[in-house]
Amino acid sequence: MKNKKIFAWICIIALIGLAEAQSYVVVSGSSLPTNTQSNLVIDYDLSKYDQNLEPGDIGTLTLVIKNTGTQDATDVLLNIPSTPKIRIDKRFFIGSVKYGAPATVSLTYQIAKDAEVGQHSIPIRLTYDGKDSDGNAISNIQTNYDYPLKVYGNPKLSIKYLQADDAKIGGDVTLKVTIMNMKTNAFNTVATLSPQTQLVTVLGSNKQYIGEIDSAGTIELTYIVHISDTLESGAYTIPLKLEYENKGHIQHTETFDIGVYVSGKPDIGITEVTTDPQEANPGDEDVEVKVKVENIGTQEVKSLKVSLKTSDPFMESKSYLQTKDLGTVKAGHSSTVSFYVDISDTAKEGIYDLDFQMDYLVGTEKTQKTETVRIVIKEKPDFKVEAQETASYPGSMSKMDVKVTNTGKDCESVTVWVLKKTDHPFDFDDKSQLIGDLDSGETGEALLEYSVKENAQAKEYLLPLEIRCSKDNKVYITTDKAKITVDGRKPDGESNMFLPALVVLVAALLTAAWIVKKSLGKKPQNGRKK
Fold this sequence. Notes:
Layout: H1 2-23, E1 40-42, E2 48-49, E3 58-67, E4 73-80, E5 86-87, E6 90-97, E7 103-111, E8 118-131, E9 137-151, E10 157-164, E11 167-168, E12 172-181, E13 186-193, E14 200-203, E15 207-213, E16 218-227, E17 234-245, E18 251-263, E19 268-276, E20 287-295, E21 301-309, E22 314-316, E23 323-329, E24 334-343, E25 350-362, E26 365-377, E27 383-389, E28 397-406, E29 411-418, E30 426-428, E31 432-438, E32 443-452, E33 460-471, E34 474-485, H2 498-521
Parallel strand pairs: 11-18
Antiparallel strand pairs: 1-3, 2-3, 3-7, 4-6, 4-8, 5-7, 8-9, 10-12, 12-16, 13-15, 13-17, 14-16, 17-18, 19-20, 20-24, 21-23, 21-25, 22-24, 25-26, 27-28, 28-32, 29-31, 29-33, 30-32, 33-34
Protein backbone atom coordinates (compact mmCIF):
# COMPACT_ATOMS: atom_id res chain seq x y z
CA MET A 1 0.00 0.00 0.00
CA LYS A 2 2.84 2.25 0.86
CA ASN A 3 4.56 1.52 -2.45
CA LYS A 4 1.40 2.45 -4.35
CA LYS A 5 1.35 5.87 -2.69
CA ILE A 6 5.00 6.47 -3.60
CA PHE A 7 4.36 5.50 -7.21
CA ALA A 8 1.35 7.83 -7.33
CA TRP A 9 3.43 10.77 -6.11
CA ILE A 10 6.11 10.02 -8.72
CA CYS A 11 3.51 10.12 -11.48
CA ILE A 12 2.11 13.43 -10.22
CA ILE A 13 5.60 15.00 -10.11
CA ALA A 14 6.32 13.74 -13.65
CA LEU A 15 3.11 15.25 -14.97
CA ILE A 16 3.88 18.57 -13.30
CA GLY A 17 7.39 18.56 -14.85
CA LEU A 18 5.98 17.78 -18.26
CA ALA A 19 3.54 20.65 -17.96
CA GLU A 20 6.34 23.04 -16.97
CA ALA A 21 8.41 21.89 -19.92
CA GLN A 22 5.56 22.45 -22.36
CA SER A 23 5.14 26.00 -21.10
CA TYR A 24 8.49 26.82 -22.73
CA VAL A 25 7.52 25.40 -26.08
CA VAL A 26 7.05 28.11 -28.73
CA VAL A 27 3.74 27.99 -30.50
CA SER A 28 5.50 27.84 -33.86
CA GLY A 29 7.20 24.68 -32.81
CA SER A 30 10.70 26.17 -32.20
CA SER A 31 13.10 24.83 -29.64
CA LEU A 32 13.29 25.93 -26.01
CA PRO A 33 15.39 29.10 -25.25
CA THR A 34 18.95 28.52 -24.20
CA ASN A 35 20.43 30.24 -21.20
CA THR A 36 23.04 32.83 -22.27
CA GLN A 37 25.53 34.94 -20.38
CA SER A 38 24.57 38.37 -19.14
CA ASN A 39 25.41 40.89 -21.91
CA LEU A 40 24.68 44.64 -21.79
CA VAL A 41 24.65 46.65 -25.04
CA ILE A 42 23.68 50.16 -26.19
CA ASP A 43 20.55 50.12 -28.33
CA TYR A 44 21.59 52.63 -31.01
CA ASP A 45 18.20 52.53 -32.67
CA LEU A 46 16.33 53.64 -29.55
CA SER A 47 19.00 56.00 -28.19
CA LYS A 48 18.83 59.61 -29.37
CA TYR A 49 20.28 63.10 -28.91
CA ASP A 50 19.22 66.66 -29.73
CA GLN A 51 19.75 67.49 -33.39
CA ASN A 52 20.96 70.69 -35.08
CA LEU A 53 23.22 71.67 -32.21
CA GLU A 54 26.15 73.94 -32.96
CA PRO A 55 29.43 74.58 -31.20
CA GLY A 56 28.70 76.06 -27.78
CA ASP A 57 25.18 74.61 -27.53
CA ILE A 58 23.86 72.38 -24.71
CA GLY A 59 21.88 69.25 -25.56
CA THR A 60 20.26 66.14 -24.08
CA LEU A 61 21.41 62.58 -24.72
CA THR A 62 19.08 59.63 -24.03
CA LEU A 63 20.75 56.20 -23.89
CA VAL A 64 18.87 52.87 -23.94
CA ILE A 65 20.77 49.92 -22.42
CA LYS A 66 19.62 46.35 -23.20
CA ASN A 67 20.56 42.98 -21.78
CA THR A 68 20.80 40.57 -24.70
CA GLY A 69 21.58 37.61 -22.39
CA THR A 70 19.05 35.59 -20.41
CA GLN A 71 20.98 35.97 -17.18
CA ASP A 72 20.41 39.16 -15.17
CA ALA A 73 23.06 41.89 -14.99
CA THR A 74 23.50 43.42 -11.56
CA ASP A 75 25.38 46.36 -10.03
CA VAL A 76 25.34 48.07 -13.41
CA LEU A 77 27.49 51.23 -13.53
CA LEU A 78 27.42 53.64 -16.53
CA ASN A 79 30.44 55.93 -16.97
CA ILE A 80 30.64 58.58 -19.77
CA PRO A 81 33.84 60.67 -19.62
CA SER A 82 34.20 64.01 -21.42
CA THR A 83 36.14 64.48 -24.66
CA PRO A 84 38.04 67.63 -25.68
CA LYS A 85 35.00 68.81 -27.67
CA ILE A 86 32.02 67.16 -25.89
CA ARG A 87 31.67 67.82 -22.15
CA ILE A 88 29.65 65.19 -20.22
CA ASP A 89 31.66 63.47 -17.48
CA LYS A 90 28.73 61.60 -15.94
CA ARG A 91 28.47 58.39 -13.80
CA PHE A 92 25.18 56.55 -13.21
CA PHE A 93 24.43 53.56 -10.95
CA ILE A 94 21.66 51.72 -12.74
CA GLY A 95 21.33 48.60 -10.59
CA SER A 96 19.93 45.51 -12.33
CA VAL A 97 19.02 45.09 -15.97
CA LYS A 98 16.96 42.00 -16.71
CA TYR A 99 16.45 40.22 -20.00
CA GLY A 100 13.75 42.01 -21.99
CA ALA A 101 13.64 45.01 -19.64
CA PRO A 102 15.95 47.78 -21.00
CA ALA A 103 17.19 50.66 -18.87
CA THR A 104 16.97 54.29 -20.03
CA VAL A 105 19.30 57.07 -18.93
CA SER A 106 19.01 60.78 -19.88
CA LEU A 107 21.83 63.27 -19.41
CA THR A 108 22.95 66.68 -20.65
CA TYR A 109 26.12 67.57 -22.51
CA GLN A 110 27.73 70.71 -23.90
CA ILE A 111 29.54 71.15 -27.21
CA ALA A 112 32.76 73.12 -27.01
CA LYS A 113 32.80 76.50 -28.76
CA ASP A 114 35.74 75.44 -30.90
CA ALA A 115 34.27 72.07 -31.83
CA GLU A 116 34.54 71.24 -35.51
CA VAL A 117 31.36 70.85 -37.49
CA GLY A 118 30.85 67.20 -38.32
CA GLN A 119 30.85 63.77 -36.72
CA HIS A 120 32.12 63.29 -33.17
CA SER A 121 31.97 60.31 -30.79
CA ILE A 122 31.68 59.96 -27.04
CA PRO A 123 33.01 56.94 -25.10
CA ILE A 124 30.56 54.85 -23.02
CA ARG A 125 31.75 52.33 -20.41
CA LEU A 126 29.47 49.73 -18.80
CA THR A 127 30.63 47.81 -15.74
CA TYR A 128 28.39 45.10 -14.16
CA ASP A 129 28.17 41.67 -12.55
CA GLY A 130 26.40 38.77 -14.21
CA LYS A 131 26.23 35.03 -14.77
CA ASP A 132 27.37 32.73 -17.48
CA SER A 133 25.02 30.39 -19.35
CA ASP A 134 25.33 27.78 -16.60
CA GLY A 135 24.38 30.27 -13.91
CA ASN A 136 27.86 30.74 -12.52
CA ALA A 137 28.54 34.24 -11.19
CA ILE A 138 30.85 36.58 -13.15
CA SER A 139 32.12 39.75 -11.52
CA ASN A 140 33.24 43.09 -12.97
CA ILE A 141 32.28 42.64 -16.61
CA GLN A 142 33.40 45.71 -18.65
CA THR A 143 32.10 46.77 -22.06
CA ASN A 144 33.17 49.90 -24.01
CA TYR A 145 31.19 51.64 -26.75
CA ASP A 146 31.56 54.77 -28.93
CA TYR A 147 28.38 56.69 -29.46
CA PRO A 148 28.30 58.91 -32.60
CA LEU A 149 27.18 62.49 -32.13
CA LYS A 150 27.02 65.08 -34.90
CA VAL A 151 27.79 68.76 -34.45
CA TYR A 152 25.84 70.80 -36.95
CA GLY A 153 26.97 73.97 -38.65
CA ASN A 154 23.64 75.15 -39.95
CA PRO A 155 23.19 78.81 -39.04
CA LYS A 156 20.52 79.98 -36.72
CA LEU A 157 20.00 82.88 -39.11
CA SER A 158 19.48 82.36 -42.81
CA ILE A 159 18.43 84.36 -45.85
CA LYS A 160 14.77 83.81 -46.57
CA TYR A 161 14.36 86.22 -49.47
CA LEU A 162 16.58 88.36 -51.68
CA GLN A 163 15.46 91.06 -54.07
CA ALA A 164 17.86 92.98 -56.29
CA ASP A 165 17.29 95.53 -59.04
CA ASP A 166 18.92 94.96 -62.41
CA ALA A 167 22.57 95.70 -61.83
CA LYS A 168 23.95 97.82 -64.65
CA ILE A 169 27.53 98.89 -65.06
CA GLY A 170 27.85 102.50 -63.90
CA GLY A 171 24.51 102.42 -62.05
CA ASP A 172 23.08 101.86 -58.57
CA VAL A 173 21.37 98.68 -57.41
CA THR A 174 19.09 98.26 -54.39
CA LEU A 175 19.50 95.03 -52.42
CA LYS A 176 16.70 93.91 -50.10
CA VAL A 177 17.60 90.95 -47.90
CA THR A 178 15.11 89.21 -45.59
CA ILE A 179 16.78 87.40 -42.66
CA MET A 180 14.92 84.65 -40.79
CA ASN A 181 15.80 83.14 -37.41
CA MET A 182 15.49 79.37 -37.78
CA LYS A 183 16.10 78.53 -34.10
CA THR A 184 16.08 80.18 -30.70
CA ASN A 185 16.31 83.89 -30.17
CA ALA A 186 19.35 85.71 -31.48
CA PHE A 187 20.67 88.72 -29.59
CA ASN A 188 22.86 91.71 -30.44
CA THR A 189 22.65 90.97 -34.13
CA VAL A 190 24.78 93.09 -36.50
CA ALA A 191 24.75 92.83 -40.32
CA THR A 192 27.73 93.97 -42.42
CA LEU A 193 27.81 94.07 -46.25
CA SER A 194 31.42 93.99 -47.46
CA PRO A 195 32.08 94.16 -51.24
CA GLN A 196 35.37 92.51 -52.18
CA THR A 197 36.27 94.99 -54.89
CA GLN A 198 36.60 98.77 -54.87
CA LEU A 199 34.52 98.83 -58.05
CA VAL A 200 31.44 97.98 -55.96
CA THR A 201 30.64 100.52 -53.23
CA VAL A 202 27.94 100.55 -50.55
CA LEU A 203 26.28 103.95 -50.44
CA GLY A 204 25.79 104.91 -46.82
CA SER A 205 26.81 102.67 -43.93
CA ASN A 206 27.59 99.06 -44.80
CA LYS A 207 26.92 98.00 -41.17
CA GLN A 208 23.41 97.80 -39.66
CA TYR A 209 22.57 97.03 -36.02
CA ILE A 210 19.52 94.74 -35.77
CA GLY A 211 19.46 93.68 -32.14
CA GLU A 212 17.22 90.76 -31.11
CA ILE A 213 15.51 88.46 -33.59
CA ASP A 214 12.86 86.20 -32.11
CA SER A 215 12.63 82.53 -32.96
CA ALA A 216 11.04 82.20 -36.42
CA GLY A 217 11.18 85.99 -36.70
CA THR A 218 12.32 87.90 -39.77
CA ILE A 219 14.05 91.19 -40.42
CA GLU A 220 14.57 93.07 -43.71
CA LEU A 221 17.84 94.77 -44.62
CA THR A 222 18.18 97.33 -47.43
CA TYR A 223 21.45 98.37 -49.03
CA ILE A 224 22.14 100.63 -52.02
CA VAL A 225 25.23 99.60 -53.96
CA HIS A 226 26.97 101.57 -56.72
CA ILE A 227 28.57 99.70 -59.63
CA SER A 228 31.63 101.35 -61.17
CA ASP A 229 31.52 102.04 -64.90
CA THR A 230 34.88 100.25 -65.24
CA LEU A 231 33.60 96.96 -63.81
CA GLU A 232 33.34 94.15 -66.32
CA SER A 233 30.01 92.45 -66.75
CA GLY A 234 29.53 89.12 -65.02
CA ALA A 235 28.39 87.45 -61.81
CA TYR A 236 29.76 88.81 -58.53
CA THR A 237 29.31 87.82 -54.89
CA ILE A 238 29.01 90.35 -52.07
CA PRO A 239 29.56 88.84 -48.60
CA LEU A 240 26.92 89.63 -45.95
CA LYS A 241 28.22 88.89 -42.44
CA LEU A 242 25.78 88.36 -39.55
CA GLU A 243 27.13 88.49 -36.01
CA TYR A 244 24.86 87.54 -33.10
CA GLU A 245 24.74 85.89 -29.65
CA ASN A 246 22.61 83.09 -28.21
CA LYS A 247 21.12 82.99 -24.72
CA GLY A 248 24.43 81.88 -23.30
CA HIS A 249 26.09 85.00 -24.75
CA ILE A 250 28.10 82.80 -27.09
CA GLN A 251 29.14 84.75 -30.17
CA HIS A 252 28.16 83.34 -33.58
CA THR A 253 29.13 84.56 -37.02
CA GLU A 254 27.53 83.56 -40.30
CA THR A 255 28.58 84.79 -43.73
CA PHE A 256 26.32 84.61 -46.76
CA ASP A 257 27.40 85.35 -50.32
CA ILE A 258 24.83 87.47 -52.13
CA GLY A 259 25.07 86.85 -55.86
CA VAL A 260 24.56 89.81 -58.19
CA TYR A 261 24.80 89.64 -61.97
CA VAL A 262 26.14 92.87 -63.39
CA SER A 263 25.24 93.37 -67.02
CA GLY A 264 26.52 95.88 -69.50
CA LYS A 265 26.27 96.67 -73.18
CA PRO A 266 28.57 94.86 -75.58
CA ASP A 267 29.87 96.95 -78.44
CA ILE A 268 32.21 95.24 -80.88
CA GLY A 269 33.94 97.51 -83.35
CA ILE A 270 37.02 97.90 -85.54
CA THR A 271 39.14 100.62 -84.03
CA GLU A 272 42.24 100.43 -86.24
CA VAL A 273 42.93 99.40 -89.84
CA THR A 274 46.20 99.27 -91.79
CA THR A 275 47.17 97.86 -95.17
CA ASP A 276 50.36 96.34 -96.49
CA PRO A 277 51.43 97.80 -98.84
CA GLN A 278 50.41 101.12 -97.35
CA GLU A 279 49.15 102.28 -100.72
CA ALA A 280 46.97 99.79 -102.53
CA ASN A 281 46.97 99.94 -106.30
CA PRO A 282 44.84 98.43 -109.02
CA GLY A 283 45.97 94.92 -109.82
CA ASP A 284 47.64 94.33 -106.45
CA GLU A 285 47.29 90.81 -105.06
CA ASP A 286 47.32 89.52 -101.47
CA VAL A 287 47.01 92.99 -99.99
CA GLU A 288 47.04 92.56 -96.20
CA VAL A 289 44.23 94.35 -94.37
CA LYS A 290 45.03 94.28 -90.66
CA VAL A 291 42.17 95.23 -88.34
CA LYS A 292 41.97 95.68 -84.58
CA VAL A 293 38.71 94.22 -83.28
CA GLU A 294 37.87 95.69 -79.87
CA ASN A 295 35.07 95.27 -77.35
CA ILE A 296 34.43 98.90 -76.54
CA GLY A 297 31.31 98.04 -74.54
CA THR A 298 30.83 96.98 -70.93
CA GLN A 299 29.97 93.30 -71.34
CA GLU A 300 32.00 90.42 -72.68
CA VAL A 301 31.04 88.57 -75.83
CA LYS A 302 31.65 84.92 -76.61
CA SER A 303 32.25 82.87 -79.76
CA LEU A 304 33.20 85.96 -81.75
CA LYS A 305 33.81 85.27 -85.45
CA VAL A 306 34.89 87.93 -87.93
CA SER A 307 34.35 87.33 -91.66
CA LEU A 308 35.52 89.38 -94.63
CA LYS A 309 32.78 90.39 -97.10
CA THR A 310 34.18 91.72 -100.38
CA SER A 311 32.64 93.72 -103.21
CA ASP A 312 34.05 95.42 -106.31
CA PRO A 313 36.89 96.35 -106.63
CA PHE A 314 37.97 93.89 -103.92
CA MET A 315 38.18 90.13 -104.33
CA GLU A 316 38.95 87.49 -101.72
CA SER A 317 42.44 86.13 -101.92
CA LYS A 318 42.24 82.40 -102.51
CA SER A 319 45.44 81.83 -100.56
CA TYR A 320 43.97 82.68 -97.14
CA LEU A 321 40.99 81.90 -94.92
CA GLN A 322 38.66 84.85 -94.64
CA THR A 323 36.96 83.98 -91.32
CA LYS A 324 38.74 84.41 -87.98
CA ASP A 325 37.54 82.85 -84.70
CA LEU A 326 38.40 85.16 -81.79
CA GLY A 327 36.46 83.31 -79.05
CA THR A 328 35.68 85.31 -75.90
CA VAL A 329 36.51 89.01 -75.84
CA LYS A 330 36.04 90.77 -72.51
CA ALA A 331 35.02 94.39 -72.20
CA GLY A 332 37.95 96.65 -73.03
CA HIS A 333 39.94 93.84 -74.66
CA SER A 334 40.89 93.53 -78.32
CA SER A 335 42.46 91.24 -80.91
CA THR A 336 44.29 92.11 -84.12
CA VAL A 337 43.73 89.89 -87.16
CA SER A 338 44.75 90.02 -90.82
CA PHE A 339 42.75 89.42 -93.97
CA TYR A 340 43.97 89.40 -97.57
CA VAL A 341 42.33 90.79 -100.71
CA ASP A 342 43.09 91.16 -104.41
CA ILE A 343 42.30 94.45 -106.17
CA SER A 344 40.79 94.59 -109.62
CA ASP A 345 43.01 95.78 -112.47
CA THR A 346 40.27 98.18 -113.53
CA ALA A 347 39.89 99.86 -110.14
CA LYS A 348 39.86 103.65 -110.27
CA GLU A 349 41.57 105.83 -107.73
CA GLY A 350 39.33 106.53 -104.77
CA ILE A 351 38.13 105.45 -101.31
CA TYR A 352 36.22 102.18 -101.12
CA ASP A 353 34.23 100.38 -98.41
CA LEU A 354 35.29 96.96 -97.16
CA ASP A 355 32.83 95.13 -94.91
CA PHE A 356 33.43 92.75 -92.01
CA GLN A 357 30.63 90.62 -90.56
CA MET A 358 30.78 89.86 -86.83
CA ASP A 359 28.85 87.01 -85.21
CA TYR A 360 28.94 86.50 -81.42
CA LEU A 361 27.00 85.52 -78.32
CA VAL A 362 25.84 87.87 -75.57
CA GLY A 363 24.99 85.39 -72.85
CA THR A 364 23.04 82.84 -74.88
CA GLU A 365 21.68 85.33 -77.42
CA LYS A 366 23.14 85.28 -80.93
CA THR A 367 24.08 88.68 -82.30
CA GLN A 368 25.33 89.82 -85.71
CA LYS A 369 26.62 93.17 -86.90
CA THR A 370 28.60 94.57 -89.82
CA GLU A 371 31.54 96.94 -89.53
CA THR A 372 32.77 98.92 -92.55
CA VAL A 373 36.31 100.22 -93.02
CA ARG A 374 37.57 102.61 -95.72
CA ILE A 375 40.41 101.53 -98.00
CA VAL A 376 42.24 104.05 -100.21
CA ILE A 377 43.18 102.89 -103.71
CA LYS A 378 45.60 105.04 -105.67
CA GLU A 379 46.20 104.69 -109.37
CA LYS A 380 49.75 103.75 -110.21
CA PRO A 381 51.85 104.84 -113.16
CA ASP A 382 51.25 102.68 -116.22
CA PHE A 383 53.15 102.73 -119.47
CA LYS A 384 52.55 102.03 -123.13
CA VAL A 385 55.71 100.88 -124.90
CA GLU A 386 56.45 101.20 -128.64
CA ALA A 387 59.78 99.83 -129.89
CA GLN A 388 61.23 100.44 -133.38
CA GLU A 389 64.37 98.52 -134.35
CA THR A 390 66.88 99.03 -137.16
CA ALA A 391 67.85 96.18 -139.45
CA SER A 392 69.56 93.34 -137.59
CA TYR A 393 71.64 90.53 -139.03
CA PRO A 394 74.47 88.31 -137.73
CA GLY A 395 77.49 90.42 -136.83
CA SER A 396 75.72 93.77 -137.16
CA MET A 397 75.48 96.76 -134.82
CA SER A 398 71.84 97.76 -134.36
CA LYS A 399 69.70 100.26 -132.51
CA MET A 400 66.27 100.13 -130.91
CA ASP A 401 64.19 103.24 -130.43
CA VAL A 402 61.86 102.72 -127.40
CA LYS A 403 59.04 105.23 -126.92
CA VAL A 404 57.39 105.16 -123.47
CA THR A 405 54.04 106.88 -122.85
CA ASN A 406 52.77 107.29 -119.27
CA THR A 407 49.08 106.32 -119.33
CA GLY A 408 48.76 106.36 -115.54
CA LYS A 409 49.77 108.72 -112.73
CA ASP A 410 52.77 111.04 -112.75
CA CYS A 411 56.05 109.30 -112.01
CA GLU A 412 59.71 110.17 -111.56
CA SER A 413 62.97 108.71 -112.89
CA VAL A 414 61.42 106.61 -115.62
CA THR A 415 64.02 104.09 -116.79
CA VAL A 416 63.96 101.44 -119.52
CA TRP A 417 65.66 98.16 -118.57
CA VAL A 418 66.56 95.33 -120.91
CA LEU A 419 66.11 91.83 -119.49
CA LYS A 420 68.25 89.82 -121.88
CA LYS A 421 67.78 86.12 -121.91
CA THR A 422 70.76 83.79 -122.03
CA ASP A 423 69.66 82.28 -125.32
CA HIS A 424 69.33 85.65 -127.04
CA PRO A 425 72.19 86.47 -129.48
CA PHE A 426 72.42 90.13 -128.43
CA ASP A 427 74.94 92.17 -126.48
CA PHE A 428 73.79 95.59 -125.23
CA ASP A 429 76.27 98.35 -124.56
CA ASP A 430 74.02 99.57 -121.75
CA LYS A 431 71.14 97.51 -120.42
CA SER A 432 69.28 100.52 -119.02
CA GLN A 433 68.63 104.07 -120.08
CA LEU A 434 67.08 106.86 -118.04
CA ILE A 435 64.26 108.79 -119.68
CA GLY A 436 63.45 111.09 -116.75
CA ASP A 437 60.18 112.24 -115.16
CA LEU A 438 56.99 111.60 -117.08
CA ASP A 439 53.69 113.18 -116.15
CA SER A 440 50.46 111.52 -117.07
CA GLY A 441 50.11 111.52 -120.89
CA GLU A 442 53.75 112.42 -121.60
CA THR A 443 56.03 110.35 -123.85
CA GLY A 444 59.74 109.78 -123.44
CA GLU A 445 62.30 108.05 -125.64
CA ALA A 446 65.23 105.71 -125.03
CA LEU A 447 67.79 104.57 -127.65
CA LEU A 448 69.30 101.17 -126.97
CA GLU A 449 72.34 100.01 -128.99
CA TYR A 450 73.26 96.37 -129.33
CA SER A 451 75.33 94.00 -131.42
CA VAL A 452 74.15 90.79 -132.98
CA LYS A 453 76.34 87.75 -132.59
CA GLU A 454 77.81 86.16 -135.71
CA ASN A 455 76.10 82.86 -134.99
CA ALA A 456 72.66 84.41 -134.52
CA GLN A 457 69.86 82.44 -136.09
CA ALA A 458 67.60 84.25 -138.44
CA LYS A 459 64.28 84.55 -136.66
CA GLU A 460 62.10 86.82 -134.56
CA TYR A 461 63.06 87.38 -130.91
CA LEU A 462 60.91 88.82 -128.10
CA LEU A 463 63.08 90.94 -125.84
CA PRO A 464 61.68 91.49 -122.26
CA LEU A 465 61.62 95.11 -121.13
CA GLU A 466 60.92 96.69 -117.75
CA ILE A 467 59.81 100.27 -117.30
CA ARG A 468 60.71 101.36 -113.79
CA CYS A 469 59.84 104.58 -112.01
CA SER A 470 59.44 105.90 -108.49
CA LYS A 471 56.77 107.91 -106.68
CA ASP A 472 56.44 108.65 -102.98
CA ASN A 473 59.34 106.32 -102.13
CA LYS A 474 57.70 103.44 -103.95
CA VAL A 475 59.04 101.76 -107.08
CA TYR A 476 56.59 100.84 -109.84
CA ILE A 477 57.45 98.32 -112.53
CA THR A 478 55.70 97.73 -115.83
CA THR A 479 56.77 94.83 -118.03
CA ASP A 480 56.51 94.63 -121.80
CA LYS A 481 58.26 93.03 -124.80
CA ALA A 482 60.00 94.37 -127.87
CA LYS A 483 60.37 92.45 -131.13
CA ILE A 484 63.80 92.02 -132.77
CA THR A 485 63.97 90.32 -136.17
CA VAL A 486 67.33 88.94 -137.28
CA ASP A 487 67.65 88.57 -141.08
CA GLY A 488 69.56 85.70 -142.61
CA ARG A 489 71.87 87.90 -144.80
CA LYS A 490 73.21 91.44 -145.03
CA PRO A 491 71.44 93.91 -147.29
CA ASP A 492 72.90 94.37 -150.88
CA GLY A 493 76.04 96.57 -151.06
CA GLU A 494 76.40 96.74 -147.34
CA SER A 495 79.03 93.98 -147.24
CA ASN A 496 81.67 96.16 -149.10
CA MET A 497 81.10 99.31 -147.13
CA PHE A 498 83.47 98.42 -144.33
CA LEU A 499 86.63 98.07 -146.50
CA PRO A 500 86.40 101.47 -148.29
CA ALA A 501 85.76 103.09 -144.99
CA LEU A 502 88.82 101.42 -143.57
CA VAL A 503 90.98 102.57 -146.53
CA VAL A 504 89.80 106.16 -146.15
CA LEU A 505 90.52 106.02 -142.41
CA VAL A 506 94.07 104.70 -142.97
CA ALA A 507 94.79 107.33 -145.65
CA ALA A 508 93.62 110.07 -143.37
CA LEU A 509 95.84 108.85 -140.58
CA LEU A 510 98.92 108.68 -142.88
CA THR A 511 98.30 112.19 -144.23
CA ALA A 512 98.01 113.57 -140.74
CA ALA A 513 101.26 111.90 -139.74
CA TRP A 514 103.18 113.33 -142.76
CA ILE A 515 101.99 116.86 -142.05
CA VAL A 516 103.08 116.64 -138.43
CA LYS A 517 106.51 115.30 -139.38
CA LYS A 518 107.11 117.99 -141.98
CA SER A 519 106.24 120.76 -139.59
CA LEU A 520 108.64 119.41 -137.00
CA GLY A 521 111.50 119.23 -139.54
CA LYS A 522 111.67 123.06 -140.14
CA LYS A 523 114.09 125.02 -137.82
CA PRO A 524 113.56 128.71 -137.00
CA GLN A 525 116.06 131.40 -138.50
CA ASN A 526 116.80 133.67 -135.48
CA GLY A 527 118.37 137.15 -136.20
CA ARG A 528 118.64 136.57 -139.97
CA LYS A 529 117.04 138.74 -142.62
CA LYS A 530 115.63 137.30 -145.77
